[in-house]
Amino acid sequence: MTVRIATWNINSVTARLPKLLEWLESAKPDVLCLQELKCAADNFPYEEVRELGYETAAHGTGRWNGVAILSKLGLDDVVRGLPEQPGYLADDAMLPDVEPRAIGATCGPVRVWSVYVPNGREVDHAHYRYKLEWLETLRQAVLEDAAGARPFAVLGDFNIAPTDDDVFDPAAFVGMTHVTPVERAALAALQESGLQDVVPRPLKYDHPYTYWDYRQLAFPKNRGMRIDLTFGNKPFADAVTDSYVDREARKGKGTSDHAPVVVDLEL
């Protein structure tokens, strides 16, 4: 059985809906994990993607976050949010905001989580501490599935570049989030739970970045970062036959600032 699984930070599913539908028709993933929906779950364009054969499980509140899983293979055992997920406590808030940043589901023979890891903002910011707490909660949540015999993967926007090779210029990021040793250690701890990066180097080009800022011609100049990742357990990784970053989806006007990451499996 051939299965194509992808992840894409869509950066507003309503603003990018034509791009999303076009890409679903051309790339034909069996499962697509989306992040940064920027819409409430009730407002997700369910009918439009259903016409292309996809069921959808969405988790969003209509603000800056939101995640979803689209599947042609069924959606079972859907879980919205991580168990005991921490919330972000802003300076002017009375209670922590538990944000919609994770959703899990079983899609046919594979179980997946779509995750949108907190940005962290600045190294000395409360959001940075929240990011590290969130990553540890994710690690705890996936331990059982990572060690299991069923193919399992965590896909999404991790807001961390795993190595210096995953940014266009390490010197440009000194003192900034996304590249700190502490963040990378948290990512390594997640992998130590039994997961591995299944989109390894080299790919079809030297620098398979997944994100390029809209400003300063970052995409034409390839001033990017690889922060959209797919971590699979051994049964998942052993089934991978191909993987790529779809740079074409980042081209043109009205696109997300992220490109889809696609993984093919033979199960």
UniProtKB/TrEMBL annotation:
GO terms for biological process: DNA repair. It comes from the Bacteria. GO terms for molecular function: DNA binding; double-stranded DNA 3'-5' DNA exonuclease activity; endonuclease activity; metal ion binding. The active site is at Y116, D157, H258. The record marks H258 as: Interaction with DNA substrate. The record marks N159 as: Transition state stabilizer. This is Exodeoxyribonuclease III. It comes from Kitasatospora atroaurantiaca.
